[in-house]
TrEMBL record:
Organism, as annotated: Amycolatopsis bartoniae
All residue ranges annotated as the ABC transporter domain in the record: 8-255
Protein name: Metal-dependent hydrolase
Compartments, record wording: Cell membrane
Length: 255
């Protein structure tokens, strides 16, 4: 698959919470097919940036666009139709549903499905169901979840639950995937598996932006890294470049 969607362009984004300016004119540009890391001390604005890009908070100022599509000013469900998917720091899976059902719900909402087909052609409803089940099976295989298809997510080890969340995000067939601390709570082996999964997602044509505190993972996985501090970009470059910048080291010393 070729890279879909174009570049992510974030231009002069600000976000004000009452007295606090959480983002203060953040600009960055992510190339199609890149894996971009967003790092920075606690409170530097990383999650707020994701929340603004993904439509959870309106921006106070500035714009974000993905290829031709303007992202800012839209609601999360509209952004999902524009090819954006994200995960959260805390898992947000449906606890009453099985792993497979969590994927089916996400697949059924994916923008490739068009209702008018079923209106014109009732057999299509039955077909639709079959296609969804096949796609769910593909996702289960791809993410190593086949053995857990019928399980309740909460009954599974945390590392598996995180994989379910990634699979669910991919069910929406995004062109741009935002991952908020995907390695949090994972053991070393699981971090290794995560790295392989994220690479394969990128290789399938998806642009990936991840917030991550695990510097080992950032160093080996990310093409480029943007460093935030106090709501502004203080450095950007390859992982090796930014790791030795004095302003980056200084920002982390106070953390
Ligand atoms: P990071 O993800 O880098 O740790 P955040 O984006 O979570 O940082 O937070 C940046 C700043 O914005 C912090 O000072 C935080 O307290 C503040 N903040 C984040 N969300 C809200 C909110 N909904 N209301 C008020 N302040 C917020």
């Amino acid at each position: 698959r070729t890279v879909a969607g174009g570049a992510l362009e974030i231009s002069e984004i600000t976000k004000q919470f009452r007295g606090l300016r959480a983002l203060d004119g953040v600009s960055l540009s992510v190339a199609p097919g890149e894996i971009r890391g967003i790092v920075g001390p606690n409170g530097s604005g990383k999650t707020t940036l994701f929340n603004v890009i993904s439509g959870i908070y309106p921006a106070t100022g500035g714009t974000a666009s993905f290829g031709e599509r303007v992202l800012t000013g839209r609601r999360p469900y509209q952004l999902s139709h524009l090819g954006l998917a994200r995960t959260f720091q805390n898992l947000r899976l449906f606890g009453q549903l099985t792993v497979e059902e969590n994927l089916l719900v996400a697949l059924d909402r994916s923008p490739m499905r068009s209702l008018w087909r079923y209106v014109l052609w009732p057999v299509g409803v039955w077909r639709h169901e079959r296609v969804l089940r096949r796609e769910a099976a593909e996702l289960l295989d791809r993410f190593g979840l086949r053995d857990f298809a019928g399980a309740a997510p909460k009954s599974l080890p945390y590392g598996i639950q995180r994989r379910v969340e990634l699979a669910r995000a991919m069910a929406a067939k995004p062109a741009l995937l935002l991952l908020d601390e995907p390695a949090a709570g994972l053991n070393g082996q699981e971090v290794g598996q995560l790295q392989e999964i994220v690479r394969s997602i990128r290789d399938s044509g998806v642009t990936v932006v991840l917030i991550e505190h695990n510097m080992g993972l950032v160093m080996s996985l990310c093409d480029r890294v943007t460093v935030l501090a106090s709501g502004g970009v203080i450095a950007e470059g390859t992982p090796a470049e930014v790791a030795v910048r004095p302003e980056v080291i200084e920002a982390y010393l106070g953390d």
